[in-house]
Amino acid sequence: MLSLDTQGLYFPLTYKIGQKTCFSVNGSVINETETEIEWNIEQISNFGDETIVHIKTGSHNVIKYNQQYRQLIEFMCMFNIPISDLVLVLDRTGTPVKVKNQEDIYERWKALRLGSFSHLENDETVRPILAAADNDFKNTITLIKKTPLYVLFLQDVYGQEIISNSSLFILPSQIFTGKDVVFKSSREIQSNGDGYLKISVDAGGVPKGDFRKLYNDKFKQLFQDTSYKYENNLKASYSYDSKQGIMDSCQAELVEKLAKDKMCSKQEFEFKFIKEEIKVWRNY
Questions:
Q1: Is 254 within 8 Å of 236 (Cβ atoms)?
Q2: What is the pTM of this model?
Q3: Roughly what angle, to the nearest 10 degrees, separates helices 102-114 and 127-138?
Q4: Rounded distance between C-alpha atoms, residue 171 and residue 184, angstroms
Q5: Using CB atoms within 10 A of its CB, is residue 30 exposed (0-12), middle (13-18) or buried (19+)?
Q6: CATH topology (fold) of 13-273
Q7: CA pair distance 201, 235, nearest whole angstrom
Q8: What tens digit of pLDDT does each residue of 12-52 get?
Q9: What is the distance between the alpha carbons of residues 278 and 217, in angstroms, rounded to a whole number?
Q10: Are 260 and 227 in contact (CB under 8 A)?
Q11: Is the model's pLDDT at 190 over the cut of 80?
Q12: Is residue 246 within 8 Å of residue 41, measured between CB atoms?
């Protein structure tokens, strides 16, 4: 559907990304953060049915957070380092199928673990996190497929075609730690006649597992409410340069609710192409 014509583009293509998160319980905000990220798309290449996208992170800064979580946030931000330089192989729908520089990512992680994290090896609370990171950075494609930023950015941007107006993807639950949610999305496409397309995406999530049992075990007594009522929805709106398949902007919201909104995770995302213009080769 989008042509993905890169011949007239000067790389890198730079995107500024804003991410806001808010977690609340019984109407009270427990944690709220705001993050600014810069992605540089170093190259986009087509090889038959595959597309290779090279993404470098220019900056990744948490600009708003609860001060009591400062050490935790600084610790977690370190885990962005191994994937700050990422080369992905996508299929025709834009779904990541392989991390081309997997060995480099794992080497960066090993250097980080032996350096900055070496003093935490015997910390019983941190050890499971490091073990999970070992798996993530050995097989990074699984991590990428379940990270909202990449799900939003890749499938509806760099796919060479849209097979249908619906798709499936998986994201982790923010309420039930370690559990996944399967989303089915639908798309609505509009052309403004000015070379740009507007695409709206609406996706509803279904728990991958028995969330009701987890609710009864962990939260029912806390909320003094017999109503489970779980919801997880993603809405996104895109603007594209339809000739080259390049996203100009995206606004998205991912909201997970439990027990009549008594527990709520809300994530907001904004992508903005920040180059002043897409420079095109011209024949004079």
A1: no
A2: 0.90
A3: 160
A4: 11
A5: middle
A6: Lipovitellin-phosvitin complex; beta-sheet shell regions (2.30.230)
A7: 6
A8: 999 999 999 999 999 999 999 999 999 999 998 888 889 89
A9: 54
A10: yes
A11: yes
A12: no
Q: Can you list the positions of beta strands (E) in 26-128?
A: 28-47, 50-64, 85-90, 96-99
Here the tokens at position 166 are: 């619906």
Cα(159)–Cα(67) distance, rounded to whole angstroms?
40
CA distance 273 to 87: 20
**How is residue 233 written in tokens?**
């929805």
Which one is predicted more confidently, 261 or 108?
108
What is the spatial distance between Cα 248 and Cα 6, in angstroms, rounded to a whole number?
15
Q: DSSP 3-state assignment of 103?
A: helix
How are the residues of the chain apportioned to helix, strand and coil, as percentages rounded to the nearest 5? 25, 45, 30
Give strand pairing partners of 132.
none
Asked if residues 248 and 7 have their Cβ atoms less than 8 Å apart, the reply is no
